[in-house]
Amino acid sequence: MSWWWRNRWGLAALLPALAVALGPGVRDGYRHHRDAQASAPIGAGADGWVVFAGAHMRLAELTPAGELRDYRGRRYTPPGSLRVWRAEIVFDGAARDRLAICRLLLEDAEGRTFDADPAELRGVRIPLPGCGPQPSGADARPRANPAEYATMTYFVTPASARPVAVRVMLSSALPSYARLTGG
Amino acid sequence: MTEHGAEGAARDAGARRSRIGSTALVVAALATGVAITSQAPDTDARQRPFVRVGVMGEPVDGRTFQGSVVAVRGARRIARSGKTRDTGGVWVIVRARAVARDKPTSIDHASVRDARGRTFLATMRINQPLVAGGYVMQPGISVEGDIVFEVPQASAARLTLRLADSSDVRMDAAIEIPIASDGPTVDRWLAEPSALPVEDARVVE
Fold first, then answer.
1. pTM of the model
2. A119 touches chain B (CB under 8 A)
3. How much is the ipTM here?
4. Which residues, in sequence order, are CB contacts of B159 under 8 Å at separation 6+?
């Protein structure tokens, strides 16, 4: 009786044993990697509002920014290769607490993302980006519904970029994020 | 010898052969393991960065950004944020240009390696304008800025710049660009009495 024959059952069990031993680690690693990426966008419902992390939000306006000034009141003109964008986002009252530490990104047609409050706008008088209410004078229009509030956020892109959405992200909610379109 | 005695002796001989065979297999497996581990690369080698090497003036792809070296200067003294700083070695100032690929990116690792293989990180004695959290690049927007290193005089003539988007470059992309000059150039840098200004990073058209 050969060694292979005598140990046939042990040999046959080796592959399943390896799968059982290594499988959970590989699966957890993949899940950990997947969950760290913003890969599950949440879009607007039929009423135009996106529901994310227990709060409602929508993009009211996304346009090239008008005149900008620095903290000394001087007019700021960006380099010709850049364009500054202004996004007005409307939130319901629940966002005040639930999205207190959100991150805002502009997404262009190529899928590239751009940070709010970029280094290119250092020294320019713009409100701090965020999902909480901004102080008065931050340009956001007052809302007719007192349960809502609006914020203004500024982004910089190459002049050739074509913005298509604003992303609202929470690290605790990844891989899901709110993808606001329209405006 | 009886018939039963002969069968028993044969069984014993078979069992002994089996034990010797098993022992030989275990020894062979251990020897194979030792041979493999002695030949396999160590942890540093296994986790080394994926380095893309370029030359001065040419953009090099660092996976999340492209970087190039525009110029290299040196001095005994530098000026930054209204303050002057001296060194007993040489301040080497690399003017670099970089552009993020598809998401906000910063260059969190910047170092130079000398001819002896010693590595010097970008100095923390000043606020670095471009690296070490000094600037977050937005995709498609080219930015140019100084990266400042403090190195011994003997090292300054033959340096290789390394840039990466993460401070921990293990198993990540990094770009390397030799920024060699020569001894007379370093001497000229050190003879310059005035402080060399380190400027803020800025967008380039």
1. 0.81
2. yes
3. 0.82
4. B92, B112, B113, B114, B149, B151, B178, B179, B180
